Each structure stands twice: as C-alpha cells, then as structure tokens.
C-alpha cells in the first residue's frame, strides 16, 4: 500500500518518520496492536526507539509515533 501526503518542506528523514506515523495510524485504526514496523532508515529507527529529544526539529512527529508504540 502506498500513500501520498503533502509534507511541505523537509528531507528524507521527515518522509521516513511520516511514513512510519502513517502506517502506525492505519494499524491502530484497523485495531492492530501487535505489528512489525520495518524501515531502511537507521536514524529514524533510533529516533523512535531512543529517548525523545524535545529539541529535535521533528520531535512532534517522533512523539506522536512514540504514543502509538
């Protein structure tokens, strides 16, 4: 399944994080709670699994993903 979202100005990290967030939202809406999320971006994975840096420019996106974990 693909998706399109106008993410405004950003970079590939923002695109990866938004893709993870979108997939997690889809899973939650479908009532799936035990999912496996795969990403080819080690940086995105580390940001999601590590402690939240509230000063990171994508902190709101990362925080939203963490809420769904």
TrEMBL record:
SUPFAM superfamilies reported in the protein's UniProt record: Ribonuclease H-like (SSF53098)
One Pfam family named in its UniProt record: RVT_3
Record InterPro entries: RNase_H-like, RNase_H-like_dom_plant, RNaseH-like_sf, RNaseH_domain, RNaseH_sf
Domain RNase H type-1: 11-68
Record-level Gene Ontology MF annotations: nucleic acid binding; RNA-DNA hybrid ribonuclease activity
Transmembrane annotation, as ranges: none
Protein name per its UniProtKB record: RNase H type-1 domain-containing protein
Organism: Cajanus cajan
């Amino acid at each position: 399944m693909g998706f399109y979202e106008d993410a405004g100005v950003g970079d590939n990290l923002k695109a990866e994080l938004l893709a993870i967030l979108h997939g997690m939202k889809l899973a939650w809406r479908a009532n799936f709670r035990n999912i496996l999320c795969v990403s080819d971006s080690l940086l995105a994975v580390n940001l999601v699994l590590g402690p939240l840096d509230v000063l990171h420019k994508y902190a709101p996106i990362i925080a939203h993903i963490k809420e769904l974990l």
